[in-house]
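Q: How would the structure tokens look for this protein?
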Amino acid sequence: MASLFQDISFALRQLTRHRIYALTAVVSMALGIGATAAVYSVLYGVLIDPYPYRDADRIAFITIQNKQGFGGDIPLTLSELGQLRKAKSIEDAFSQGDASMVATDGDLPQSVKVLEMTGNGLQFLDAPPLMGRVFTAAEAPAGVAPPPVAVISYPFWKTHFASSADVLGKVLLLNHQKYTVIGVTGPRFTWHDSEVYVPMPAGTDPKLRYQTLIRLRPGVSTDAAAGELTSFVQQVGHAEPALLPSDGYRIKVDTLNDWLLGQFKGTLIVLFVAVALLLLIGCGNVSILMLARGTARLQELATRIALGASRARIVKQLLTEAVIVSITGGALGMAFAYFAIRLITGLIPQYAIPHEVVITLNTPVLLFSTAVSVAIGILAGLSPALQFSSPQVSQMIQSAGSRSTTSRGARTRTALIVAQTALTVLMLAGAGAAMRNFLQAYAAQLGFDSHHVLWLHINLPEKSFPGWQERVNYYDALIEKIKSTPGVTDAAITGAGLPTYSEWRQPVQIIGRTLDSSRKSGVNMVGSEYFSVLGIPLLEGRLITREEVLRGANVAVISSTFAQRYFPGSDPIGRQILPAELAQVPSTLLHAPNLSQPYEVIGVVGDVRNDGLHRPIIPQAYLPSSIFASTGNDFLIRTTGNPSALLHAISTNIRALNQNQAVGMTYSLDEYLSMFVWSHERFIAVLFGVFSFVALGLAAIGLASVVAYSVEQRTREFGIRMALGAQQWNVLRLTLTSTARTTGAGLILGILLSVGLSDAVHRWTQSSLRDASVLAVIAGVFLVASAAACFLPARRATRIDPMVALRDS
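A: Here is the predicted structure in token form.
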């Protein structure tokens, strides 16, 4: 123990005397460890401990995927839910359904996101409430009218009830029905992002289908559960053929986290690999710095060995110094991690991770970071410690005295710089590809004008406008009322999502041709002003009129891609099409009387991005919005100025038409694109860019250290050369040549790694590392940075005084 304290004391004195070396090494470790701790905090929160629910790793969805890998979960009726619970692989199951309601107990109606759940829903999740209790299956059994009780979310409690401590027992008026508040969920309980949870009402249509979740029995794999449930899903498909893809499918059971995270899980793992590479670069830097520092200490170490110090004692002392550097860097890295976490969480796309996730520097992260700090210190200091603890005292003294050109450990130093260069180039390639991907997405021709457009969602008050024509007329009145708002130039309904995705894809039959299930198209139900609101150009024919919307006419407008693909070389105007799934829509949905009749093509419009920003545009058909006069619709509103500034005026106008009508979710279209379309690419590009910039800086420090190390070793040689008449530029060229060969080898290796790993990275980030232009740019950036890093220490060689160098040798 006494020797340990001596080593620590001696190491601290050495580091204090050589502040530049110590500071450089500590910063190298701090950046690597801080970035690793920050990303590990995200991974821990998102992948290891994301949910406050019981056995969350066994909560799952039954999903159906078509041949292309697309699909979704299968909704079930309540009777099918009862059958599902009998499966051997399932411990429990529950169903839920959105029921947007209007709270009418305040001054103005407020749209509230309500989740109706079977009686066991909150028991299934089993997250203790902050206050009160939850409703149970015993008090809300299937088929029996449940008590009018409600459990409210923590945010809703804060906003609607002002965090009142006596909220339990208060009455919440939803759609003019009284619900008694019996509980408040905890802050992390954000299930389905709902505000109020109520038992599912009795007497609902038995044909209605609800989203269903299961909990697997312990030890049952998702594949085993999928195998057992295949026959059950096929039975469900017989009852509702529209649920199953007509061209083949497979059944999967996806855990809750896999379902919600999707591709973003892979993105986080790739990011963690990237910062692990950054940590290795920092570790390499410390090793290189210790090699350079060891050269200056050869005389000291040789003397200590000559006086009887054992090799183990020397190794222990040098490792102590390296561990102190890494632990200090780790402590400083925690401060860096704190700010890095704020950067990462601020960039994570909304809905990319569960809202229950808490990302913080918690105890597991701190323990992980401490372990990493110690391990990195040992790893970084091991090679230099072994090298400079050699018992060959006479050779060490000779080397220390002459500073000969023979470099002990040259292979180690070369390997370190080649590896560091290769890893830096690999990170730069990833950042370059991600940035190119983001810029392509941002600059993509969307096919529509997103500026000055407001998007809002409206749900009709419950039990209002029961007839199809009543709803059509009411939506028309809403449009006219919105258009009368000062600053609004146009407004329209969109019934199947917003660009840049088409939410409803289905086979399309072309009347007069043979059936072909591969002939598919996106389908959207739109108002008559939809194309003018988004600035989508008319290329041929005409657009849907207001009168055709009011009577649910069987007309269609198709996109340019639709016309070129399915009517090549012929005029599509006047042809008839029939989206196959329209005829199979459940009868419980209110729709136009002639829903399943063919639709006459009356116009062709320009293409709009409808399959993301990186995949080809798919054919698109537009039908009148009245085809589905559903209980909720999205509205697009074009304004003359900032669309968000008109939200209050628009809402006031809507309530003037119907005082019970509340306005739901709202975004400007530009804001929507930024949050939901470009955000994934922006997240990858920014973080890869930041970490790659840090890696480049660390690599530059490493290269500068190598050149300084080389100059230190070759001082006598350079003195002799200059005494014999060598010019300064000759010495400069000689100094940089060996480093250039090493970095060149690292650059080539990094490019080969980038090409080899491109497929794996593309799978998770949609970025390609094989793009020649990107590789050329990052090679140029690295060469410029490395040249700048090497020039200053190399220039010192040209200023060596030959007489001083020879006298000191």
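Confidence is low (pLDDT under 50) at residues 399-407.

The longest strand covers residues 90-98.

Upvote if useful.
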